[in-house]
Amino acid sequence: MTKRDLIELVSKKANLTSKAARESVQAMLNGVRDSLKRGEKVVITGFGTFSVRKRASRPGRNPKTGERIIIAARKAPGFTPGKTLKKVVR
């Protein structure tokens, strides 16, 4: 499913215009993004939890030269599916 498909689905299910559905979906996605940017967790009951995960620095290799390098620590977005979502997918 693409973002466009999601907008169409919201438009039909909520009986909204395409423009209103697009704005609703975009507002939701912006809210999740902004919360993660602040380091907060986003919990959508019955669906899952979005969070920021910290990745430690680790050794690696430059694929061109084979030289050993250290890959810097960084933050990455993560998603943990909720119990209900896991049950539906099985």
β-strand number: 5
Radius of gyration, rounded?
19 Å
Helix/strand order: HHEEEEEH
CATH class of the largest domain: Few Secondary Structures
Characterize the overall form. elongated
* Biggest β-sheet description: 3 strands, antiparallel
Q: What distance lies between the first and last C-alpha atoms, to the nearest angstrom?
A: 18 Å
Query: What is the strand content?
Result: 25-35%
CATH architecture of the largest domain: Irregular
Number of helices: 3
Helix percentage range: 40-55%
Query: Under CATH, the topology of the largest domain is which?
Result: HU Protein, Chain A
CATH superfamily of the largest domain: IHF-like DNA-binding proteins
Mean pLDDT level: 95
| Low-pLDDT residue spans | none
Number of domains: 2
Q: Structural class, from secondary structure content?
A: alpha+beta
Q: Strand arrangement, largest sheet? A: 1-2-5
Structure explained in plain terms:
With 90 residues, this protein is an alpha+beta fold. It folds into two domains: 1-38; 41-90, Irregular (HU Protein, Chain A), CATH 4.10.520. It has helices at residues 3-13, 18-37, 83-89; strands at residues 42-44, 48-55, 58-61, 68-71, 74-81. It has a three-stranded antiparallel β-sheet. Strands 3-4 form a two-stranded antiparallel sheet. A hairpin with a 6-residue loop joins strand 3 and strand 4 (68-71). Helix 1 packs across helix 2 (18-37). The longest helix has 20 residues, at 18-37. The mean pLDDT is 95.
